[in-house]
Structure formats: C-alpha cells, structure tokens
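TASK: fixed-backbone design
INPUT:
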C-alpha cells in the first residue's frame, strides 16, 4: 500500500527556514529587518516609516518565494516528532532517537558480535576431541542467541512496516494542517501589500503637497552639500546658464543674447524679490506661447536629476568646474580662425595701388566675417561681434540689415562660383 510522501528538506530549504526565524527574531526585539550582508541600515524598526515597511515587505516577499522550503522543513519535522512514528523519543527535552531505534541498533551490534564469535570459533578449532567437546555448549548457545535475535528482528521489521504506514498518514495530516496554518500568513501578507500601496500613495500625495521650491532643497543638499547649495554667485551662474539654454532652444540667437546683455547691464540694478517675480511671470508667459506646461516640465526635470546615476554625473561635473569661473566647465578651445586684417603702412603719399591694396584687404576681411571666419566691427555703430557678421542689425536699422544681407550673399560659396 502506497501513500503520499513528504519531500525531504534540502540544505537550501534549511537556509530559508533559518532566514525566516532570524527575521522574526529581529522583529520581536524591535530591530530593523536587515540581512547580515546589508550595510548602512537603521538599527531599529519603525512601523510608521514607509521605507521600513517596504524593506520588511521585500524580505517577507523574498522568503515567500521559497515558501515550499518552509513547508518541507516544518512538515518533515512534524513527521519526525509524531509519537506514532517512533522516530524521536517524546519523553526527552532534546532530540534523541526513539527507544525502538536504539534497540534495533543494539540488535545489529549484537548480531555482528555473534558472527564475529562464530567466525573466530571455526578458525581456531582443531582436531583435539576434548577441546571440541568443551566448546560444543558454547556453539549451541551462540546459535540459540542468533535464532532469538533473528526472531526479534523479524518482529521489528513488521512493526516498522506498520509504523511507516502510520507515518505516511500522519505526514499527510501534518501537511494539511500546515497549509491551514499558513493561510492566515498569506492573508496578512496581502493586507501588508495593500498597506504598502496605500502608504506609497499617501507619501506621493504629501510630496506633491509641498511647494516645488521646498522639494528642490533636499536634492541640492544631497547633490552639492550645504556650502555650494547656499553659494549665491554659483546659483546666479547656473540659473543664467539654464535660462540661456531655454531661450536658445526656443529660437533666440547669440546676437540677440549679446544685445540683451548689454541692454540689461546698462540699466539700474533691480530688487531681487521683484525681479524673481518677473522671472516667474515671463517664464509662464513664454511657456504659454510655446505650448509648454511649466509645472509638468519642472516635475519631470526634478525626477530626472534625482536618479542616483544623474546625481553622480552632476557631482563629477561640479568637481571638474574651473575655480572662480562662472562657466560650468572649462571652455572649449575655439577653432583657429583667420586673423583680423592687418594695417597697411605706407610712407609718403598714398597712390592708387596702395588704395587698391587697402580695399582688397578690407573686402577680404568683410567676406571672411560674413562667413563667420573672423570677428567683425560694424562701421555704423562701432559694435563688435567676435563670432562674425550677424544676420541683421542689432538696433533694427533696415539699411544696415540690407548691407549685411548683401555682404553675406556676396561672400557665400554659391556667389563665388557665379551662382545666383
């Protein structure tokens, strides 16, 4: 007759069971549910802390993935300690073999002794009649002992067969009871999962309830530290950099930026609170005109820079920043460009050839400036442009713009080839 068998717990199963015991032991003492290899973890567990609850949930969830291991360990020991199976002595406070097993082992040892004695007897026997007669009684006694022992062992075998059958039945019953016992734990885990979801939602709601400025501060402190976070000049430079990148992305030219820098710094210094308000209003107006949700853009960027990998990159960039410079990184070396035109020096009177030479140098300079190969100075207003001739007059003078358009067209590669 066969029945359902209880799987034997492996070494890995035992590890899972010990891990569960360790976790429960830590929780019972109020300690944080950390593994031995975990570093930089809190000492005590706070059941009101979302991160602590998430850590506990992850530990339980990891153990739950191997719940079969706990079943095998508990079910296996349940079979062993069942008194009907006669595997462990139920009268002892420690784990010891059942008296029937001890008796069986003693019988095996006794049988080995009998076999050894008989073998020794036949090895030592000789032809001496008197000696043989003296040992006959010993031989008979040994055979009788052997028969008694074999009968006892047959009885043990029959008893063991019945015990094995009962053990199978009790193992099946123990497994059923174990499943019933673990059902409340599964329900508790489900409730814990739901509570974690609710706490995450509450935490997200609380986070969004804080003003955006207040939520930027923790990132600043974590990424740069208190000193750099409070450096007003550094914050000026980085804000101006981002503002420039925003208007650049929205179509503003370098020439317009230079013109506005001169215009702004030629005016009286404003009051910071009022100017910040102006920044907020004009940023909102720019986003409205450009179809951008400024609040959504801010949330997206704050989430991006809070990623650990991004924080590492920003810290590295800050560490490489040149000291006492407003630039966020060392300025790239400009491409080598043709030098500005030299001065034609003559002595005595100026003849036509000298004038022609000066005109040629001026025309060459104008053409290179129109192509952006060298700097340019406007002959009308005297404003300099280090990156070459702009696309239009910075002061809105249409006549100057027409001249610029003409010179750029004349200096273009298509014009040099004779193309219109």
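OUTPUT:
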């Amino acid at each position: 007759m066969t029945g359902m068998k209880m799987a034997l717990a492996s070494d890995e199963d035992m590890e899972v069971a010990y891990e569960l015991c360790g976790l429960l032991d830590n929780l019972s003492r109020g300690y944080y549910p950390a593994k031995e290899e975990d570093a930089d973890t809190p000492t005590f567990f706070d059941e009101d802390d979302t991160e602590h609850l998430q850590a506990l949930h992850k530990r339980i969830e990891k153990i739950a993935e191997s719940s079969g291991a706990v079943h095998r360990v508990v079910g296996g020991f349940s079979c062993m300690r069942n008194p009907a199976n006669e595997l462990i002595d139920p009268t002892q406070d420690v784990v010891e073999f059942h008296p029937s097993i001890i008796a069986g082992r003693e019988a095996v040892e006794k049988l080995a002794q009998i076999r050894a004695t008989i073998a020794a007897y036949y090895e030592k026997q000789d032809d001496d009649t008197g000696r043989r007669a003296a040992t006959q009684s010993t031989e008979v006694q040994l055979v009788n002992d052997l028969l008694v022992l074999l009968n006892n062992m047959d009885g043990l075998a029959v008893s063991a067969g019945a015990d094995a059958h009962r053990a199978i039945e009790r193992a099946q019953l123990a497994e059923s009871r174990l499943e019933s016992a673990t059902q409340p734990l599964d329900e508790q885990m489900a409730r814990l999962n739901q509570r974690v979801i609710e706490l995450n939602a509450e935490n997200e709601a609380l986070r969004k309830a804080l003003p955006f400025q207040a939520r930027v501060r923790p990132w600043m402190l974590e990424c740069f530290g208190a000193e750099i976070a409070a450096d007003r000049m550094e914050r000026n430079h980085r804000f101006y950099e981002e503002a420039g990148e925003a208007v650049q992305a929205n179509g503003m030219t370098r020439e317009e930026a230079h013109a506005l820098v001169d215009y702004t710094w030629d005016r009286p210094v404003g009051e910071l609170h009022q100017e910040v308000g102006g920044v907020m209003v004009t940023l909102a107006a720019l986003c409205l005109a450009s179809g951008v949700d400024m609040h959504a853009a801010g949330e997206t960027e704050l989430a991006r820079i809070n990623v650990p990998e991004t924080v590492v990159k920003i810290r590295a960039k800050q560490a490489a920043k040149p000291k006492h410079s407003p630039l966020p990184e060392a300025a790239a070396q400009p491409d080598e460009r043709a030098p500005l035109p030299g001065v034609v020096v003559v002595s005595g009177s100026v003849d036509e050839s000298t004038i022609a030479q000066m005109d040629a140098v001026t025309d060459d300079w104008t053409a290179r400036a129109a192509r952006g190969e060298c700097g340019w100075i406007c002959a009308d207003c005297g404003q300099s442009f280090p990156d070459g001739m702009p696309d239009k007059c910075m002061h809105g003078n249409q006549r100057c713009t027409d001249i610029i358009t003409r010179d750029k067209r004349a200096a273009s590669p298509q014009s040099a080839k004779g193309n219109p």
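COMMENT: Residues 127-131, 333-342, 416-420 have pLDDT under 50 and may be disordered.
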